[in-house]
């Protein structure tokens, strides 16, 4: 308020405050939704030894996620000398917070589905092995794309260029490697961050499409086909 937004009203401030407050409270509710039932199931002896390890890991990850969120927000409240820019959190901490959330969500979903659905016993053919490896590689690529999105958000890199497929009038912008050393551009140059996110996004959609086409050549259970088709639909919608 003192440095930039002199005309902010109390109502406008409350809107920001309640968004942050709601996010924190929702995070605490999620934490309780993990920890309280886990403690109850553990006490009743309903958890097998391997499942106990999964439950401990998930509950630990929930607590770590909350700690990482506090650490991220803290970076946005630090006083920056001679800076009157819009206050923002560190893009590195934002990416770590998002990455941790994705790991937590994926691990929770995987654990839940493993309990609810019996594992298919398929013959380990060469094609099936290749499909599994390709699926793992596609997963890693999508995860990297999502993390690059956190850097876009953290640097407001989406505001630099608003044209597609070109960035302005060029396929490769002039200021792509403006920072020194060169490695800094990948994480701190808004132009490079947006460029990388575009390339990773296109690569992810291409990889998902190739995964779908390859899966059509292999005899797969109905559930697996539905999963691959859903992945394709969501990738194109995204």
From TrEMBL:
Biological process annotations from GO: heme A biosynthetic process
Transmembrane segments: 25-42, 54-73, 93-117, 138-161, 197-215
Membrane topology note: Multi-pass membrane protein
GO molecular function, one term: oxidoreductase activity, acting on NAD(P)H, heme protein as acceptor
Record InterPro entries: COX15/CtaA_fam, HemeA_Synthase_type2
Protein keywords: Heme biosynthesis, Iron, Membrane, Metal-binding, Oxidoreductase, Transmembrane, Transmembrane helix
Cellular localisation: Membrane
Catalytic activity: Fe(II)-heme o + 2 A + H2O = Fe(II)-heme a + 2 AH2
Known pathway: Porphyrin-containing compound metabolism; heme A biosynthesis; heme A from heme O: step 1/1
Keyword Oxidoreductase: yes
Cofactors, names only: heme b
Gene Ontology cellular-component terms listed: mitochondrial inner membrane
Record has Metal-binding as a keyword: yes
Major site of localization recorded for this protein: membrane
Protein name: COX15 protein
Native species: Furnarius figulus
Gene name of the record: Cox15
